[in-house]
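Re: that chain you flagged

S.,

Sorry for the slow reply, it's been a week of failed gels. I finally had a moment to sit down with the sequence you sent. For the record, here it is as I used it:
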Amino acid sequence: MLHLALVFVQPRAVAEEVIQDTWIAVLEGIERFESRSTLRTWVFTILTNRAKTRAMRERRSIPFSALEGEGPAVEPERFLPASDGWAGHWASPPGPLPPEELLLASETREHLAAAIRRLPPAQRAVFSLRDVEGWSAEEVCNVLELSETNQRVLLHRGRSAVRQALEDYLKDATG
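Prediction finished late last night. Pasting the structure tokens below so you have them in one place:
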């Protein structure tokens, strides 16, 4: 819950207040739960609505329109051209993974967390719920009120940005 709340509001103390408000709303409204979705989806929908309301009140939200005009998630030069028999495949694939010790290092985890924090709010929400919390695409679409297509695009862009940040860091760290 904290990951999702932090997508919409900062600092952590405000996100924790949103979570408390959510639990109060759940307790007050549990008799209205109609089982049209899972209980988890219902609770997280309440959380999302509370967090969005709080963010708007504090003027800390970033509208989806601010995301327009973003460049491609991965540079087109990293893929083979249409004239190639393997068009669309990696021209310069991601580098090999470094030794396990490096991947497990706390510094690497910090860079990963920072890369996730730098994502635009919508990408961060989808990435966090899908890849950190392990939610299904359908659950994420329901809670964040996204179309399936928009959810896939946000997830792809988020994953690409995080992967690029980790590649850059690991490249610098290994030499």
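What I noticed first: Residues 148-174 form the longest helix (27 residues).

Talk soon,
D.
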